[in-house]
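The methods section describes the discrete structure representation at length, but only in general terms. An entry of this sort, consisting of the sequence and the corresponding backbone structure tokens, reads as follows:
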Amino acid sequence: MTGAVRRLRRTYRRLRLGTRLALGLGALSLAVFAVVGTALTAYMRDYLERQLGDQLKLIQTVQAKDAAAHGTVKRKPYYGWYTAVYDVSDDAVTLRRPADVPDDTRAFAGLARAMASSDTELMRTERIHGEGVYRLRGCEVEPGVVLVSAAPVEDVEETVGQLITVQVVVFALALAALVEFGRRMLRRGLKPLSDMAHTAHGIASHDLSESASRLPLRADGRDGGPEVAELRTAFNTMLEHIDDSLAVRAEAELRLRRFVADASHELRTPLMSVRGYADLFQYAAANEPAERDRHLARLRAEAARMGVLLDDLLLLARLDAAEVEAPLRTADTDLVELVLQAADAFRAGHPDHPLTVRAGAGPLRLRLDPQRIRQVLDNLLTNAAVHTPAGTPVSVEVSVAGGAALVRVADAGPGVPAEDRERVFDRFYRVDKARSRDRGGSGLGLPVARSLARAHGGDIDLSGGPGATVFTVRLPLDGGP
């Protein structure tokens, strides 16, 4: 028995949700029909029995007068009904003759004896041997004389049986129609869920390992009600999130490959130079003092260039990793003083670029890393000098706006082309591809500057058009994150 129940449970669990809901609806409807049918049948049986009792009472009213006048009942009741008059004493119960009674009169005599000692009229349902079930009613004609009438209950049972048959047929048809209609309605209502499942299968079959992988599938439709619409919206939102994540991953992979390729290329040149100059020392010409000093100077220059490049890469890696111990040593620093120091260094290193500084009258103290912010300013000023011709004016302005300190580094050079504005902060990216590395740098100055500004809770923006380039450094007045 337990094994059969387990098999039924497993079979039920394998059914589709619509079928399970339809079966549940059918079971609930069957229970409701059973309760309604039982109540209706009980009410109908009780009603018919009361009607039969009323008929007996009405007939006995006439028969009692007949028995009082003639001693027995002369008027015959309905066909199949019985009537008897009994003389009841303490010792015996005697049936008056003639009487229309069945062979088995024990139920009649028992009711007559009980009636003789009762103050109210009695009614019983008894089974008479050889006749069936009868409804018996007794009434007192006069003291010691009792009239007993009996009516068959067969008609009542037949009517109740027909009512039960009609109920079973009607309820069975209604149940079948309800289950079928409910199944169709549930299938239609659950179709959006099936569509979403189909979409999910399509996504599962989609190759997500491709770098530029996108998810063109979405759950469509308007049916299903607000709950399904909410689920559909959440499903599509999830797909959009996955799509965006895949796009970010693809972009990150592309940038990583480009970064590795550019870093390898940038390191390859000084390494080859170092190797070449080292090989020269194998020849006699390299042993001459002047020649040896020149080669050593070039070796030191290439080594220094590799050191700067590696330091920038290490700094960017530490900033990207968001290490617990960030590479910042903050202190209460005057930003105006840092700008003035950077301006003096720029004038000494680039006398061919006139520089204008507008830093306000008083100090502007912030909580920041003075060495790193000075590096940001130096990178921006050097960028202005490297990418503009000699004589191009450069300006630096310090101001406060919107709860932040602003440092604008502007030049009147050729400007940054529109197609390059989105990538000037990419690592190893150069606007002028033909510029030499000695003059154009490694392409890490602006990325390092932006990363340091963001590490302080700020940022760097690029604005301006042809004939003007403006880099704006934004630093929070509260000292950053």
Summary: The first strand starts at residue 82 and ends at 88. The mean pLDDT is 78. The two ends are 69 Å apart (CA to CA). The chain is about 55% helix and 15% strand.
